[in-house]
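Input chain follows. Return structure tokens only.
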Amino acid sequence: MTGSDGSEKKAVPTAAQKRWLQRGLDQAGGKLPLFDDEGRQISVRTIRSCVAAGWAEPWFSNPIKPDWLVCRLTAAGAKAAGSPKTA
């Protein structure tokens, strides 16, 4: 991301994005959840914005629910989530 003065700016995740990304830190392959701890579906907007920022990447298609976007954490996502190591 480039600022108005031409300098590079690093994107910072919102609180909701960071919570979602952190949930992938302890999962095999960095799998990110489709639902929060209370069983509510994660906002598609949160998921898509994290993919656009490079913090998450689509992992595979769900044949039963093709509209669900199953993602996994990227190395940049692990760093944005506060992990000292990469995914």
